[in-house]
Each structure stands twice: as C-alpha cells, then as structure tokens.
Amino acid sequence: MALLSTVPSEAFAASVNDTLEDERRYVAMLYRHVDKLRDVATQRLARTKLDNASNPSARAERDASATMYRERIRQLEGIDERLCFGRLDMDDGERRYVGRIGLVDEDDQSSLLMDWRAPAARPYYLANAITREGVRRRRQLRMKGRTVTGLDDEILDVESAPPDSTTSLTNEAALMAALTAHRTGRMQDIVATIQAEQDEIIRADINGVLVVQGGPGTGKTAVALHRVAYLLYAHRERLEKRGALILGPNATFLRYISQVLPSLGETGALLCMVGDLYPGVVATGSEPDEVAEIKGRISMVQVMANAVYDRQETPPVKEVLFEGDRLRLTHKLTANAKRLARDTLRPHNEARPYFVREIIEALTNQVASLIGRHLLVDEDIKQIRFDLSRSPEVHRALHELWPILTPEQLLADLYASPERIEAATPDLAPAERELLRRDPSAPWTPGDVPLLDEAAELLGWDDRAERAREAAQWRADLEYAQGVLQILNYEEDEIDEEVLQATALIDASTLADRHDDDGYLSVSERAATDRTWAFGHIVVDEAQELSPMVWRLLMRRSPSRSMTVVGDVAQTSDPSGTTTWGDVFAPYVADRWRLTELTVNYRTPAEVMAVAADVLAAISPELKPPRSARTSGITPWHGQVESYARAVPEAVRAEYAAVGGGQVAVITPTELVHPLGDAIRDATTAEVVVGDGVSLGAGVVVLDVRQAKGLEFDSVLVVDPTGIVSESRRGLSDLYVALTRTTKRLGVLHRGDLPAVLRQLGERDTTDLTVEAAHDRADEGAR
Ligand SMILES: Nc1ncnc2c1ncn2[C@@H]1O[C@H](COP(=O)(O)OP(=O)(O)OP(=O)(O)O)[C@@H](O)[C@H]1O
C-alpha cells in the first residue's frame, strides 16, 4: 500500500476555502436532519412510557418498543461526532457524501448521506488514480464537533485537476493526523481512513472461518470491530436473530474497545471474555500458568468424560432398607442397569431415568418375592413400584449410584478429591494431578469455563429458563431504578450502572410482577444467558491466546462456523495458546478456513519496530515484522539503573512531560507492578493507575504484559526486560508485545546487562534522566 502525501498548492487551498462554507452549510443541514430524527424518537419513547399496558403481552410490547426507541436515540447520539467525513465526486457529476449512517431526504427519497458500509460508498476506500472506480475527486472533511474546519481533496482524474494540484493515491493527511493524535485510553473508530487491505477484510464474505493474521498495530482489532459493524449492516436480519459475539482478552481491553461500535451506530453485539462464556458463573479467579495450561489441553475432554463415568457407581453390593426389609442391589444388577442407561447414548442426567427405572424394577421384583409373588395382583405390584419410587432410602441409594449433577458440582467434586482426579486422569503425571486440586470454595477461573461447558454437554444440563428469568429480573431492576432516579430528577446519562443496581435493590418484589414476561430481552441479553446459544457471527480478538478447550466451546456456539479470528502468532503469551492457526482449525473445518494478512503497522513507528524486529527474529526467524506506516524521529533508548524505585518515577515524570497531556505506560513483570505503581504515585502530579481494571484515561498506567495486551500509549517504559522474558514460557513474545504498545516513544530500563535482543536501542545516560526530570520539576514549579 502506498502512503503518499497530499501537499495542497496555494491555488488549490484557495479553491478549498471557497467551498468550505458550502460544506459547512451542507453538514449543518445533515445535523438538523439527525436532530429531527432524535426528537421524533424521544417523543415516541415518552409516549410509550406513558402507556399503561394492562396485561403481560401488552407490557412486553410496550417494553420492546421502549427498548427500540432507546436504542435509536443511543445510535443517533453515538454517531454525532464526525457524522459526515467525506465526499466523492463521480465522473458523471454525482456527489456522494459519506458518513456514519445513511440519511435520505423524506420528500424525494434522495440520498443525503451515504452509510460508509453501502456498496456505493466503497470507492471512498478503494479508489486511487490508477483504479478510479468512477471517482474524480475524493474529499475528506475535517470536523471539530459539528463544524467543518477544513478539507483535504485528492483529485484522482489527473486531466481535470487544477494544473498545479498534487495527486495522491491515499488519504494520508487524515491517516497521519489520526495516527499521531494523543491516545485517550479509548480506541477510536477508523471509519474515515480505512485502508484498502483493511477494507477487503471488513467486507469479506460472512460465511466460514476468516483468520486475520497481522503483526502488532496492523489494525486487527479495529478491522474486526468495523467488520462487525459492516456485517450488522449487510446481514442485519441474520444477525438480529442470532446476534454477534466479540471475544476479547480481558476486561480492560473490552472497555478500551467499547466505544467503537456505538460510534459506528451499532450497539447490538455482545462483548465478552472467556470468563463470561458460561452463564451463571463469574470466573474471576486466577491460577498459575501451568494449571491453566493443563485445563486448556484438548485431552481434558476425555478427563471430563471419565469424571462423569466415575460418578456412575457399581459397588459390589448395595443394601437398601425398605419398609423394614433389607433389599440387595448386586453388582450384576447395577452394572446391568448402568449398561442399559448408557446404551441410550444420552447425557448423564438424561440417561438417569433409564437407570432409575431398571433399579426400581429390580427392587420391585425383590419386594414381590419377599411377600410371595403368587399372592399379588398387578395393582399390588404397581403400588410397590410407586412406594419404592417415593422412598427416601431408595432415593438416597439412587443418588449414590447415579446422582443428578450440575456442571459446577461435578467439577468442584473432581478438584476436591485426589481419588476422583486419579480416576479421571490416567494419563497425567502425579505432579500434574496435584496441580488440578483446588479448594471447593475457591472462585472459578477462566480455565474452568470450557470445562464447565464440556460438563454441561456430558450431563445434559439445561438451565436456560432459570438464566432467562434472572436476566429479565436484572433488566427489570435496572429499569425500575432508572425510573426512581428520574423521579429524583437525574438526567438519564448521569445515571451510572452501579448506582442503578444499588437503587434497584429498593423493591425487587414489585419488579418481579411488573416484568413477569421475558419476551422483550434483547438478542444479546438472551444470548448472554443461554449456554447453548448459536451466534450468527463470532469475532475472536487476540485469538492466539485461546486454548484448545476454549476453541471447542466457541465452535459449539458457532454451528455455522461463521467466524472472524484476528491475532498474531508471534504475540502468544498464554502457554495454552497457539503458534499455528492450522492446528486450531483442523479439527473443526479441516483446511476450509481462509487466511488473510495485514502488513502495515499503523501504531508503532519504524524506529521502535526496528528494535522489536530483533526480538521477533529471536522468537522465530520465519516471522516477518509488519512495515511501519511512519517514522517518529525519536530514537528508542535504554538506560541501566541501580534502583528501579528511584529511576522509574523519574523516567515517568520525564516521559509524561515529553508527551504533554498524552498517556505513559510502564510495562513490567507482574511482581513489580504494585511496588513501582506506589513509587510512581509519589513522584508525579499525573493520575496514576495500577494493574488490572485500570481507569483507561489516566495519564500514567502501570501494567504487566497481559494487562497491556491490545492497548496502546503515547510513551512506553519497559522496566526489567530480563524479568519479562524469564517470567513466562513465552517471555520473548511478551517482550515483543511490550515494546510494540507505543505510538511514539519507547524507553527500556534495566538493572543488569541489556538483553542482547535489544541491542539496537540507543544508550542513554541515566544521570541525564535525573537531570531532565529535575528540570521538568523546576518548570512545573515556575508554572
Ligand atoms: N486505517 C486506519 N486509520 C487510522 N488508524 C488506524 C487504521 N488502522 C489502524 N489504526 C490505528 O492503529 C492502532 C493499532 O490498531 P489495532 O489496535 O487495531 O492493531 P492490532 O493489530 O489489533 O494490534 P495488536 O495486535 O498489537 O494489539 C489503533 O490506534 C488504530 O486505531
């Protein structure tokens, strides 16, 4: 992809000025249109709220309408910023304004604004001087709030361009402005500057598994999110019914990307991490890598099957007391009942009635023999059978022989018992078995989620109705609370979700009968509460990190195998993750998956990428680094220091001053995150946040590599590279991730020798660092 400059001449700039007013008028008209649409939706919402629906179905209808109007208002608010960002002038004189949503003139149905996803808007991203696609001029509108502040024109038809105009092939001016802007802690959409190789992926066929491999900063996440917006537009009916799932690596990352889809006018996708994929379980626990690695192995499928098998017991003999008689279930009897139940090929809980029926039949025969069969008529036998099936002793025996199990119970019992672990894991070494042991009171971890899912399949566990009821209740609680807060005169956008939840506790029982129908749950809400939900499309980000067991779970949620999988096999940190895409998909789609690559790094400047390339070569000489879209003119540096506690806060102060209002990240081994965070807090006036769940807008954040996955900052200080490399089995990949989080500046601080792979860093005198920091402090004092 060529990235050429647009350098407007004076004559060209003058003509731009002439038209600026016209564009301002046009865009103002578009905003008036949007305001009108929003007013209509607001009025309809108000009217719907007044509707005193008298029966459950009318209430469900009212709530569904209210949800629809609220979504519409949210959509129109989301697209307000840079509503219109470009214009195409076609050869035949047609003008197409391109923006976030489509708007039409109500009188003549002509297009006022074309949705960026419409086929007719595509030349905006693809046309160049060689393949013009009928475009004569492409115009970028620069906006501040709702006002057009400038124009960038590209004349694609050289013949008709002003004689001294510069012809360029791409939107480089706008692209570079976007790439060098300060990071805010929230990912921005790229709708105005999507590049051709990205556009191909965004609009690729929805069917099948599409793998997008790309180095750091190549826009994989951005492309994946814009692809969801595109698919929601192009296949709205399918995705409205089945929903779209976006899976990301951690909560911080999900918050980081959470604004992108709303800014594209889409709110209908479900954002999750692996820990959320088993409804009803909050998998927030953590565990050592080696435990997670065992749980992620595909051999756990057999382990779970063994664990279930182990719960179907056949003791040598089982005695059951019934009305004073001691009945005997011999091994042969229970084994026979077990075989019959298993032969049904049903999951454990569903096969149980067959087992129970056999056992009750066997016990009925015994009781009949004890009384004397010749004395009994059919009615008596029926009565005995009935009494046995009501007997607590019989129930107890049946429970011991073939218990009804929930997935949580199966897994908790397994982890709690060395004997059960041994029985289920014949192929594990004793030390590995020991690693699986866990206290039943410990919280579930993301590694447990696919095992619970596997267990649910094996057990035939179905709690959809219960989950749906819970979700309906939750939604009802929130809406009630919202109502209360509005009575108290809060504006809707001042109400944060935690306050809502607290207020929701006021009167849960009133709510229960106000919303006794769950028919108005949105698709995402229904999908989130249903373990067996089949999504219309699944997007997986940082996909290299997923274990084989998680892939198995995801394939269950995508029977149509409609997936977009984005990742970089060079950035794999998780010991269960993958370094070869073929290995992931072969079991599910053989070789029927498509691989596409992104090759340009939009985040990391060339100076930093040159350093990271050596690390990449050390991971695997076959891996090629992406090409940086720009240089920064800033040399990445390293400094050897005696004490991190002293040097890091000074370096942070210097970097914070250097990025002037931007964001600085310290990326360091996990054990240093909190100690360094504390030391930095005392040394800077900036807001400093530390560790997971970071507030994304803070000036300084301190993270380990996993927490920094997928994020980016104006300046990155990597502290203790040797510690990062030795911290995990894939330490070099972690170092590669850490180095490539910066959009501008990179510094590396180390106590011992600099790792050889970082030899391209320019050496920096650390006394100089202290002097610079002191200088900044003096400056601040002067201000
Ligand atoms: N066409 C584009 N126009 C403007 N900005 C872009 C474009 N493509 C990518 N970017 C920006 O480049 C940065 C990196 O993008 P993104 O985070 O999607 O990359 P990634 O491939 O997912 O990176 P990583 O694998 O390192 O997490 C983001 O700030 C993104 O907005």
Automatic annotation (TrEMBL):
<dbReference type="GO" id="GO:0003677">
    <property type="term" value="F:DNA binding"/>
</dbReference>
<dbReference type="GO" id="GO:0043138">
    <property type="term" value="F:3'-5' DNA helicase activity"/>
</dbReference>
<keyword id="KW-0067">ATP-binding</keyword>
<keyword id="KW-0347">Helicase</keyword>
<feature type="binding site">
    <location>
        <begin position="214"/>
        <end position="221"/>
    </location>
    <ligand>
        <name>ATP</name>
    </ligand>
</feature>
<dbReference type="GO" id="GO:0005829">
    <property type="term" value="C:cytosol"/>
</dbReference>
<feature type="domain" description="UvrD-like helicase ATP-binding">
    <location>
        <begin position="193"/>
        <end position="605"/>
    </location>
</feature>
<dbReference type="GO" id="GO:0000725">
    <property type="term" value="P:recombinational repair"/>
</dbReference>
<dbReference type="GO" id="GO:0005524">
    <property type="term" value="F:ATP binding"/>
</dbReference>
<protein>
    <submittedName>
        <fullName>DNA helicase IV</fullName>
    </submittedName>
</protein>
<dbReference type="Pfam" id="PF13538">
    <property type="entry name" value="UvrD_C_2"/>
</dbReference>
<dbReference type="InterPro" id="IPR027417">
    <property type="entry name" value="P-loop_NTPase"/>
</dbReference>
<dbReference type="Pfam" id="PF00580">
    <property type="entry name" value="UvrD-helicase"/>
</dbReference>
<keyword id="KW-0378">Hydrolase</keyword>
<dbReference type="GO" id="GO:0016787">
    <property type="term" value="F:hydrolase activity"/>
</dbReference>
<keyword id="KW-0547">Nucleotide-binding</keyword>
<dbReference type="InterPro" id="IPR000212">
    <property type="entry name" value="DNA_helicase_UvrD/REP"/>
</dbReference>
<dbReference type="InterPro" id="IPR027785">
    <property type="entry name" value="UvrD-like_helicase_C"/>
</dbReference>
<dbReference type="InterPro" id="IPR014016">
    <property type="entry name" value="UvrD-like_ATP-bd"/>
</dbReference>
